[in-house]
Amino acid sequence: MLNIFIFVSVSLFIVGFWIYISKRKHLMNMLISLEYMVLSIFMLLMLVTFTLGLEMYAGLIYLIASVCEGSLGVGIMVGMVRSYGSDYVSSLSSLTC
Questions:
Q1: For 88, phi and psi rounded to 5 degrees?
Q2: What is the mean pLDDT of residues 15-20?
């Protein structure tokens, strides 16, 4: 039963990584897939801590770091939309005029 949960969490991470690679046109799609990958890693971390009987503070610290990462990404996206007018990743390139 434990192997099924580990397989599910790893496959969720792989799906999130595939979406991150394939949907790299918009910044919002990239941020959503990053949060998806963070949640799949959190699920794997909680599964490991439950089975080994470790403390739960590692999961809390991981969630705090992931929330900070998400809010930083949304802040960068809002700043980019206000200055460039869209959330296209191609508008971030400094080589284009």
A1: -70, 135
A2: 90
